[in-house]
Write a structure and sequence with these properties.
4 helices, alpha/beta, 35% helix, Hypothetical Protein Ychn, Chain: A, single chain
């Protein structure tokens, strides 16, 4: 099984993020999502939050970016990992392919 990494650094492509994730899962792949910079604003969306609970999906965020963009992460599901750029580096190491949105 291969892993798809998705780096989300803007808040412009939520529909694509959800679609790529669902398509990869349907094809039997794992998906690793890392959210940073302006992309942290998407964490307010229940659709993105819901991805963290799906089998085969891991979702982490840059805590520093969320604070910088005024995104409250306290109410996020426990499956969403509050992290740092280390999580981004780990995603890039573990994934066979990475998409940047």
């Amino acid at each position: 099984m291969s892993r798809l990494g998705i780096l989300v650094n803007t808040d412009r492509h939520l529909k694509h993020l959800l679609g790529f994730t669902r398509a990869a899962l349907a094809a039997g792949h794992e998906v690793i999502i890392f959210v940073m910079d302006g992309g942290t604003r998407l964490l307010r969306d229940a659709g993105l939050q819901g991805l963290a609970g799906l089998p085969g999906v891991s979702l982490s965020l840059c805590d520093h970016s969320a604070k910088r963009h005024g995104v409250d992460i306290e109410g996020l599901p426990a499956a969403v990992v509050r992290g740092s750029q280390l999580n981004n580096a780990m995603m890039n190491h573990q994934a066979e392919r990475v998409i940047v949105l």
